[in-house]
């Protein structure tokens, strides 16, 4: 999984900006859209989509053994998704997601696939494209 170039400005949890080197910039006037424009959203969506495909592939290969009882199918499926996620070094992607204020996928244990799906949908919205889930239309401010 590749890593896009660092954005020129990042947000921290105080609302202050940080430049690509991590130096604090008080009162930075940087919007989420500006940061999104500096990141390669397509690359991030691609990385997450590849990861999602791996999750589904591991799920289909791991749940066909018949060793998981029906009461534990959902938990086993989520565990396989989690294992697929943790096979990768996601630090670069996590940093980019955090700079947009999105889930960095660091605490996805409970709902791994749905968290990845939500992040993909939001990135598609930020990119101005139509997302496959309909998330952008359901959260539009123009309604």
Descriptive report:
With 143 residues, the protein is mainly α. A hairpin with a 4-residue loop joins strand 2 (17-19) and strand 3. Strands 1-2-3 form a three-stranded antiparallel sheet, with no helix packed on it. The protein is 50% helix and 6% strand. The chain has helices spanning 32-38, 41-62, 73-86, 91-99, 112-126, 135-138; strands at 9-11, 17-19, 24-25. The protein has two domains: 7-38, no CATH class; 40-138, no CATH class. The model is unreliable at 2-21 (pLDDT under 50).
Brief write-up:
This protein has helices spanning 32-38, 41-62, 73-86, 91-99, 112-126, 135-138, and strands spanning 9-11, 17-19, 24-25. It is mainly α.
Main sheet strand line-up: 1-2-3
Whole-Å distance between the termini? 37 Å
Number of helices, where a helix is a run of at least 4 consecutive DSSP H or I residues: 6
Q: What's the number of domains? A: 2
Q: Return the string of H and E elements.
A: EEEHHHHHH
Q: pLDDT under 50 segments (min length 5)?
A: 2-21
What percentage of amino acids are in beta strands?
Answer: 5-15%
Q: Tell me about the biggest sheet?
A: 3 strands, antiparallel
Q: What is the typical, i.e. mean, pLDDT?
A: 76
Strand element count? 3
Please estimate the helix content. Answer: 40-55%
SS content category? mainly alpha
In oligomeric terms, what are we looking at? single chain
Gyration radius (Cα, Å) is: 17 Å
Identify the overall geometry: elongated
């Amino acid at each position: 999984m590749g890593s896009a170039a660092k954005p020129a400005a990042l947000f921290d949890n105080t609302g202050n900006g940080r430049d690509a080197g991590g130096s604090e910039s008080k009162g930075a006037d940087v919007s989420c859209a500006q940061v999104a424009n500096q990141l390669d959203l397509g690359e991030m969506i691609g990385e997450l989509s590849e990861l999602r495909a791996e999750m589904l592939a591991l799920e289909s290969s791991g749940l066909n053994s018949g060793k998981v009882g029906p009461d534990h199918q959902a938990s086993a499926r989520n565990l396989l998704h989690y294992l697929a996620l943790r096979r990768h070094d996601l630090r670069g992607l996590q940093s980019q997601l955090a700079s947009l204020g999105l889930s960095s996928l660091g605490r996805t244990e409970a709902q791994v696939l749905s968290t990845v799906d939500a992040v993909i949908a939001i990135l598609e919205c930020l990119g101005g494209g139509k997302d496959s889930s309909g998330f952008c239309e359901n959260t539009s401010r123009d309604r």
